[in-house]
Amino acid sequence: MKKTLYIFNNGELRRKDNSLYFETDGQRKFIPVEDTNDIFIFGEVDVTKRFLEFASQKEICIHYFNHYGYYVGSFYPREHLNSGHVILKQAEHYLDQQKRLHLARLFVRGSIGQMRRVVKYYASRVKSGQEQLTERIGRLDHHLDILPQQNSVEELMAVEGHAREAYYSTFDYIIGDDDFRFVKRSQRPPLNRLNALISFGNSLCYTIALSEIYKTYLDPRIGYLHATNFRRFSLNLDLAEIFKPIFVDRLIFYLLNKKMLTKDDFDRQTGGILLSDSGKRTFVAEMDKRLKTTVSHRHLGRSVSYRRLMRLELYKIQKHILGEKEYEPYQALW
Q: For 8-55, what is the HEC assignment?
């Protein structure tokens, strides 16, 4: 499996003959281009046109994050997998309200199902709050039950929002640390440490999903739950809804319960709290490790990495819009 390169230092990305390298403080580190899937840039990094040309030739996506850890944008190489038929079918499923609603409902069902799975996993493991977690599972079940009754994407989004409120209310019981209270969801800037972790992790998840879409015939600009409008991409947001609970949230619980991140890994910035550079490095290293972890795939009969699960999900979506097989959102088995 190809690897992701994360760059936190300031420096320059350059091309030398048929290879790429990153130079910082007078030292060069060569990049194995044939083994690199994408590059995440968090530092102040200069690139040249020759570098971008070669990166495009090697189908390497480059994602930029600003000083605060917010996603800025991507160098998205010219699509190397093109299919006019797939694009037309994607657009057809967006323009047809019933087809779009059906897909959007499946994304919400998959998202709430994953939230439920996470809460159920911790319900028997928390020191206190088992009753509360069991009650939240009941709430999530209720939101799943009423999904078929929703007749617009806006109504589906409202149900998903209420389900996520119930889900987030379990975090304090799962983490059990006064330094990381949830309180309420806040963004740009996050108002507490836990929200800072959620925002940073979600941003990574959206970007990883975008890289995986690049490896398929699907167009990331055409989403279904998240409207296709003037935003850059939306299909990656749909896909991430299914994977955020198991990629991001479970990683947050792991890092905090293992004390790998503490309150010292956060900085107060312009009215909010953000993850420090050392905290970002820790989070990214553990997330990369988790994405490489393999799980048994019930249909393939073999083990695949968590990151590969995203690609397989996209293949399922593609088969759905082509009319080959009904899409069934992924559900974790643990």
A: CCCEEEEEECCEEEEEECCEEEEECHHHEEEEEECCCEEECHHHHHHH
Q: What is the pLDDT along the chain (334 residues), one digit of tens a residue?
A: 688 999 999 999 998 888 888 988 878 888 888 888 899 999 899 998 998 998 888 888 999 998 778 888 888 877 666 778 999 999 999 999 999 999 999 999 999 999 999 999 998 888 777 888 999 999 999 999 999 999 999 999 999 999 999 999 999 899 988 888 877 776 667 778 888 899 999 999 999 999 999 889 999 999 999 887 766 789 999 999 999 999 999 999 999 999 999 888 888 877 778 888 899 999 999 999 999 988 776 666 678 888 899 999 999 999 999 999 999 998 887 6
Asked if residue 241 belongs to a known ligand binding site, the reply is yes
CA distance 309 to 242: 11
Q: Confirm or deny that 160 is annotated as ligand binding.
A: yes
Is residue 261 within 8 A of residue 283, CB to CB? The reply is yes
- Burial of 172: CB neighbours in 10 Å, binned 0-12, 13-18, 19+: middle
Q: Give the strand pairing for 36-41 and 61-65.
A: parallel
In order of 3, 112, 139, 324, the CA distances from 332 in angstroms are: 24, 12, 19, 24
Tokens 């206190």 sit on residue:
128
**Predicted structure pTM score:** 0.90
Structure tokens at 68: 């605060």
CATH superfamily, domain 84-321, is CRISPR-associated endonuclease Cas1, C-terminal domain (1.20.120.920)
Structural domain 3-75, CATH architecture: Ribosomal Protein L15; Chain: K; domain 2 (3.100)
Domain boundaries, the chain: 3-75, 84-321
Bridge partner list, 46: 12
Query: Looking at the chain, how many residues does it have?
Result: 334
- Rounded distance between C-alpha atoms, residue 109 and residue 329, angstroms: 8
Three-state secondary structure readout of 126-164: CCCCHHHHHHHHHHHHHHHHCHHHCCCHHHHHHHHHHHH
How far apart (Å, rounded) are the C-alpha atoms in residues 215 and 204? 17
